[in-house]
Amino acid sequence: MISGIEKEIVNLLQKQDKRAISLLYKNYADALYGVVKKVIADDETAQDVLQETFVKIWRYAKKYDPAKAKLFTWLYRIAYNTAIDKTRALKNKTEKEVQIETSTVYKITTNSLNQDVLDIKKHLSSIEEKYQIVINALFFEGMTQQEASEELDIPLGTIKSRLKIGLRELKKIYNP
Length: 176
What we know:
Blueprint: H1 4-14, H2 19-39, H3 43-59, H4 71-96, H5 120-124, H6 129-140, H7 145-152, H8 156-174
Helix pairs in contact: 1-2, 2-3, 2-4, 3-4, 6-8, 7-8
């Protein structure tokens, strides 16, 4: 059985009446914060997720159907899913961040650079053009193999083969 306040909130939500949000917050914020905290330990992030939850509730208010679920169940699912989405987003972000303190990029000295290979573009012209094109796209234009395949209209397998053969030919030049 639906309580009077729940019925009023549902009615206001479906009319897109802004008073619904303050009633939702007053009656459900603590419970929804508890749902979010079960997924996200950090208080600041959990508060952000709670705010995102209320934004989503407002955005999807017209989609709520009291015949399908109780109001709290619907609110719970939105809060829980928003917390899970935030967790995944944070995980993906930290996996993609460059760890500068463990990087060796800035520790290369000029002594460790082989001066003989700095003229690679000059030697690139001494191998067949089909290999030059692939090596140039991958190493000097920064394309992935897939991007080079699409850009050059060459099958991916052919890109990989030409890269392997082209590098082998360059190796013959540098290590006769």
